[in-house]
Specification:
Structural class: alpha+beta
Helix content: 10-25%
Oligomer: single chain
Shape: globular
CATH topology: Jelly Rolls
Order of helices and strands: EHEHEHHEEEEEEEH
Length: about 220
């Protein structure tokens, strides 16, 4: 099933000057689920007072898929959020939660705005990823589709957990051969900030190169 939705339109222009945007209190308090693979989730990751500014400053990415940071110019509150994601607190919180040192691992950050129906199929991330963390940033999600699922295998309908991409919702998991996940088909705006910790800088360089090549051909073919 394909459902189309758009984010709530921002009101008059606002500038965020209210302090820290990323709030990891609920993340630190949440428990790790070990079945079918280590994962956890929480709400309230974004300062509620900053949400109007984040909606306004979210990158206007017209192509579907995840975009690396050098594919757009971050501004305002969203730029501040990216800086906070990279300042070490999140990596340390992941280290404390999962018992793996993420503070020394390369961090690949990508951003999605638009989603196509073919995206989100059941899959396992590549071996170069150690863990993935998703911060959802869509205001007023109403669709039953497009919700991240923790799958018990390759079947999208066999899942143990589901979460909508509402503003401030966070989902993270350790990558393994069993870490099947995905979301049901959706077309339209689905705002996500994705952070992946990789096993090496070489893996980071390869992934960024792949992003750029893919972007080039999408432009060439009008995708």
């Amino acid at each position: 099933m394909t459902t189309t939705a758009t984010a709530t339109a921002p009101g008059p222009a606002e500038t965020w000057t209210g302090g820290r945007i990323l709030n990891l209190d609920n993340f630190r308090a949440a428990s790790v689920n070990r079945v079918p693979y280590p994962h956890m989730s929480c709400a309230g990751t974004l300062n509620p007072a900053a949400l109007p500014a984040l909606r306004q400053d979210y990158p206007d990415l017209h192509e579907a898929g995840f975009h690396p940071l050098d594919a757009f110019e971050a501004k305002g509150a969203f730029k501040q959020l990216l800086a906070e994601v990279q300042d070490g607190e999140l990596s340390q919180a992941m280290t404390d939660k999962f018992g793996i040192d993420f503070t020394t691992r390369p961090m690949l950050i990508t951003v999605r705005k638009m989603c196509k129906p073919h995206e989100g199929r059941a899959h396992v991330d590549g071996k170069s990823k150690i863990a993935t963390l998703l911060i959802y940033m869509h205001s007023g999600w109403a669709s039953p589709e497009g919700r991240i699922r923790v799958l018990n295998g390759k079947n999208m309908d066999d899942y143990s957990f589901e979460m909508p991409p509402d503003e401030g919702n966070l989902f993270t998991f350790l990558r393994s051969e069993d870490s099947w996940h995905g979301h049901t088909p959706f077309e339209g705006e689905r705002r996500v900030l994705q952070i992946a910790w990789l096993d090496s800088q070489d893996s980071m360089d390869r992934k960024l190169k792949r992003h750029h090549v893919s972007h080039f051909f999408k432009k060439l073919w009008g995708g």
